[in-house]
Design goal:
heterodimer; A: 143 residues; alpha/beta; Hypothetical Protein Ychn, Chain: A; 5-stranded parallel sheet; 36% helix; globular; B: 96 residues; 3 helices; 5 strands; Sulphur_relay_TusC/DsrF (chain A); tRNA 2-thiouridine synthesizing protein C (chain A)
């Protein structure tokens, strides 16, 4: 098994432990992503902030909420004018040890999506767990 | 206790719903910039669960000519009050 595979496996295992045993993920930094790819630079900037924090050794959790869930759609591609999009960054998250990927349940259902539609394994967060999630991270950045 | 800052008008867009969904039972909400439109009588019903925990920034209300139209349910604070609210909170979370 190469390093990438083991990192992904680890992420899945930890996601399950957090989802079932403790219920709520915790970490140093929670980055909330609420904007879709391509439409603005919000999503890219949020992901950049997460990567920088992770590169400095912070334990980063990502929460995809609102249109931010679209960041996890498979088969994304560059825009018509060659704009890069953000799917490349999503692929890199495991390399940066960002393994706590959380998705707001309401954001999925209101867009007719489910966790199985997404390009990576995620933990789905129900609405009543959101305040606790913010509480369990000393720093929250909102994009 | 988290101080949530909302700078988007609750009358347009869903940012206010994202903020409310993430607020805990003790958290406070301070309306700033275009967020102060939430203190108007027509909008303030969104915040009924936040009695005593809803604030609006005086300077931003005044700049928009809304100071006298503000609903009592929103506690009006000036920038010094903003600082105090920040001091009293464990952290702040901005919603834009």
């Amino acid at each position: 098994m190469n390093e990438t595979e083991s990192a992904i496996d680890k992420g899945e295992v930890e996601g399950k432990v957090e989802g079932k045993v403790e219920g709520i993920a915790k970490g140093d930094l929670l980055v909330i992503l609420r904007h879709s790819p391509h439409g603005s630079s919000w999503l890219r900037e949020g992901l950049d902030a997460a990567l920088v924090a992770a590169a400095f050794g912070q334990q980063v959790s990502l929460l995809f909420a609102g249109d931010g869930v679209l960041a996890l759609m498979p088969h994304q591609q560059a825009g018509a004018l060659g704009q890069k999009g953000t799917h490349g960054v999503i692929d890199m998250l495991a390399m940066y040890d960002i393994e706590t990927l959380l998705v707001d349940a309401h954001a999925l259902t209101s867009r007719g999506l489910s966790a199985e539609d997404l390009m990576l394994p995620v933990s789905v967060v129900e609405g009543d767990a959101l305040p606790k999630l913010l509480d369990r991270h000393p720093l929250v950045l909102n994009f | 206790m988290i101080l949530h800052l909302l700078n988007r008008s609750p009358a347009t867009g869903g940012t206010v719903d994202d903020a409310l969904a993430a607020m805990g039972p003790d958290d406070r909400l301070l309306l700033i910039e275009d967020g102060v439109l939430g203190a108007l009588p027509a909008q303030v019903a969104r915040f009924t669960g936040l009695t005593g925990r809803l604030f609006a920034l005086r300077e931003d209300l005044a700049a928009r000519g809304l100071l006298e139209r503000c609903e009592e349910q929103a506690n009006i604070v000036d920038v010094d009050g903003f600082v105090t609210l920040t001091e009293e909170a464990d952290k702040t979370v901005s919603w834009s």
